[in-house]
Design goal:
single chain, Jelly Rolls, 5-stranded antiparallel beta sheet, 12 strands, elongated, disordered N terminus
Length: about 170
C-alpha cells in the first residue's frame, strides 16, 4: 500500500489546520457621490459559529476609480458594531488602493463574548498612511450574528467621487 503525503486524503472533516472561508466576494460594489457613510461591503458571522480560541482573518481591498479635486475618503473597518481600525481622511487620487486587514481572536463566547482585534488600514495615496490598531472587543454576543463591514465616507458629494470594492474575504483560521 502506498503512502499518501496529503493529510486531507480520505478526510471530510475540517481539522487539519486549514482555514475555512466563511465569505468571499469580488462583486465590485461602489460608493459614489454621497457624504453619507455607507458599508462598501458586509458579512455577518452566523450565530453560535465562534468558539474560544478561534481566529478570524478579514481582508478587504478597494480602489478609488475616480475622485474630485481634494475631496477625502475615510475607511473604517467594523466588527460587531465596533470600529476596529479607522483610516485617516485622505486626499485620494484615481487608482489609489485601500487595504484593510485584521485578525480577530476569540477569548470568550456567549452573550458577553470578548475578542481582541489587531487591524491595519493602508493606502498608496500620495500622502500614504498606515493606521494600526489593537481593539478590545467586549460584550459581543456570539449567540447572535456578528457583522463585519468596511464603511467608507467621502468628505464631499460629487459624481466623480467613486470607490469600488475589489475583494472582501472573511476566514476562520
Amino acid at each position: 500500500m502506498g503512502y499518501n503525503k496529503n493529510p486531507m486524503y480520505g478526510s471530510n472533516s475540517f481539522d487539519h489546520g486549514q482555514s475555512q472561508v466563511l465569505y468571499a466576494s469580488a462583486l465590485q460594489a461602489t460608493h459614489t457621490n454621497s457624504t453619507d457613510a455607507a458599508d462598501l461591503c458586509s458579512f455577518s458571522i452566523p450565530a453560535n459559529k465562534l468558539e474560544v480560541g478561534d481566529m478570524l482573518r478579514i481582508q478587504v481591498r478597494a480602489t478609488v476609480t475616480d475622485n474630485n479635486s481634494t475631496d477625502t475618503l475615510t475607511p473604517i473597518l467594523n466588527f460587531g458594531g465596533s470600529a476596529i481600525a479607522t483610516g485617516a481622511a485622505l486626499d485620494v487620487a484615481d487608482s489609489d488602493v485601500i487595504w484593510a486587514d485584521a485578525i480577530v481572536s476569540v477569548v470568550s463566547i456567549g452573550s458577553s463574548g470578548t475578542m481582541t482585534a489587531h487591524s491595519e488600514i493602508r493606502t498608496d495615496a500620495l500622502a500614504a498612511t498606515t493606521v494600526r490598531a489593537t481593539t478590545a472587543l467586549t460584550s459581543k454576543n456570539t449567540e447572535s450574528a456578528l457583522a463585519i463591514a468596511l464603511n467608507v465616507d467621502w468628505s464631499v458629494a460629487h459624481a466623480e467621487n467613486i470607490v469600488r470594492l475589489d475583494a472582501f474575504i472573511v476566514e476562520l483560521i
